[in-house]
Every structure is written in structure tokens, then in C-alpha cells.
Specification:
- The protein is mainly α and 174 residues long.
- It contains six helices and no strands.
- It has one domain.
Length: 174
Amino acid sequence: MLILKIAGAVLIIFSTTGLGFAMAKKYRERIKELRQLQIAFQMLSSEISYCATPLPFAFNRVGQKLNEPVSDIFLNAAELLENSEGRELGDMWRGAVNEIFPITFLNTKDKQILLSVSSFLGYSDQVHQEKQIKLILHQLKQSEEEAWGTLHSNERMWKYLGVLGGLMLVILFS
């Protein structure tokens, strides 16, 4: 009977610790995705500025060079553009972002930054698009800095909460 209690206690502590570490991981993953987005928009700016690549091909090239789930946004947008059937570019970009957003670690502020791309991409001249992409890059950099602050304040808390929560449950059930 004592062995079952010990095994149960260890199982509870491991599971709550794992849950705490999983919650803490979300903060690190958001930073990785924000960095990937910054790289993506820098590459997109280069494709637009220097190569004058049409947007479906530019999205596809950018998407192929990135990691998931950020790459999925650009690849999905490229696919939607190729099968556009008269829909506007902004609608297709918003559709790609909305479809992929649930599998990312990004927050709603980050989503709004991504959705704002639909207001200028493909609708303005090359110079204006470059300026807008620089603005997007600045906003993503600010989000990354804010994410670092959130990481430092919340990551340790979630890890400790997982371990201490498990210990508390073990004590309560004993």
C-alpha cells in the first residue's frame, strides 16, 4: 500500500511539473516565432525590392526557407493566391493568418500585426510596401521585446507552480 502511495505521489509531481514546464515553453516558443516572422518579412522585402518577384512566388520562396508554423502562413497565402478566383489579396492573406494562427504561440496583438499586412501588400507601389514592411518589422521587434519581459516574469513562475502544485496535491491527498 505504501508503494502505491509513493508511486501516486511521484506520478502527481511529475505530471504537474510537466504541465508547468509546458506552460513555460509557450513563452519561449512565442519569441522564436516572432523572430521567424521578422526574418520572413526581411526576406519578403528583399523579394519585393530587389528581385521584383510576384507575390505568390515571393510568399512561396519565403515559406520554404522558414520553420513551421510561420512558414505555413506564407505557404498557405501563396496557395490561396494561386487559386484566387478573383478574391482580393488582403482577404487571402487574412485567411492564411486566421487559418494558421491557432497552431502558433502568438498572441492577439501579434495576430493584429500580421493582419495589418493585408492593408498594403499588393495594393501599393514598391517603395510604399518597403516602408510598410519596415513598420511591421519594428512592431514585431517591439512584440519580441515585450515577450522577453513576459518570459522573464512568467517562465520561472510556471515551472515553480508546476512543482509546488504537485507537492501541494500530494500533501493534500496524504
